[in-house]
Predict the 3D structure of the following.
Amino acid sequence: MRIEDAPGGRRAGPYMRRKVRRMNEQTADLLPRVATAHELMHRVVDLQNRINQLTTQFAAKTEKKSKRHPVLYAIAGFLIAFALITSTPLKAVTYPLTIPFFATGGMELQVTVWNVINLAVSAVIGAVLYKVIAKSADKSRAQKNAAIDRNNAQVEANNQALAQSIEQTKREIFATQQRWAAEVAPWYPMDYDSIDAVDFFLTAVRNHRASTVQEMVNLYETERHQRRMEQGQQQILQQQRIGNMLQLGNLFMQGQILNQAQQINANTASASSSLDWISNAMGRR
């Protein structure tokens, strides 16, 4: 039996072979273009991810410790000196200076003079200690600032390297976008510039499921619609499972309430029977 395909009555075999040949030619022409689109799309995404990763690696510099505290140094020096001069071993050093005042003003004047002398000596010693404390603090601060400077220099070098890498990656993205504009944009459907779409297009064309741009777009929309329908069904099934669980929970609660009610009725009946028995027993007496 022969199969006719055209008004001229030609056999279908040669026509189908020509049709298959045209489809193969179209696929052979479309496949490298889709592969290029796939490569460029993934390259742009990978480069952008690299920029995002590099951006998170920037570090902030540590602020140098430049503030001095002269008032605190002076107070610390004075308190240390006063504690030393009024301690039991050292107060005997200033005590002989107050002996002449005992004869003129008694113990009260001597103690007053002694306190004044102690304060004066504490101030002198405190001034000396202030210089020592300030010098030690400046030395410690200088050492810390030197370490901070070294760390900041390393941070600055790393940040500059990261900035250069980011600029280089941006140039690569720009070059890839130029290739896209020249090689892909003239034929690629502009509303489907996503990784999901370009991955699907490459798979569809490679497996001969589509041989034209229109076919691969229609196939993509069809399968995306099917995925949405399946997801909707999954949601419905999940809601049904939740509803069933709630119904089972309600039935369980109702059973418990019924059991409690029956127990209460049984207890009430038992109590009533006991009262009747007691009443009858007392009536017989």
